[in-house]
Amino acid sequence: MKLLSAFVAGLIFGLGLILSGMANPSKVIAFLDLAGPWDPSLAFVMGGAIAVGSVGFYFASKRSRAVLGDVMRMPTATRIDRPLVLGSLAFGAGWGLAGYCPGPAVATLLSGRSEPLIFVLAMLAGMALYEMQTRFSGKPQ
Q: Which parts of the chain span the membrane according to its record (predicted)?
């Protein structure tokens, strides 16, 4: 049941990304290009996602267990620190250069285009490098 619900949630999320235009790199770049012909439509998509997510987080924070029985693991970090800022800058730079963020890139892997595949491979390489760095240093940087 957990696997089926994860599949359905991922499918709905991926379809939402495609229908909203978040999986279209040219639309994303037009949203991020404030100096050019700016397309503000994705701001409404993100605002809607934040609203829906906020409601979900509100109800999830009141529970000790998820609907399917797993222990609820809510985020506990509240500090804005160097790793958060640097990670956010790297994420934003990658999003702005490629026109993809992780969700839409994964959602478009089967499109037959090479760009999402290259992005996902680069993303996985970056994640592996981070994991190796934290294991060798003993702490996140």
A: 41-60, 80-98, 110-130
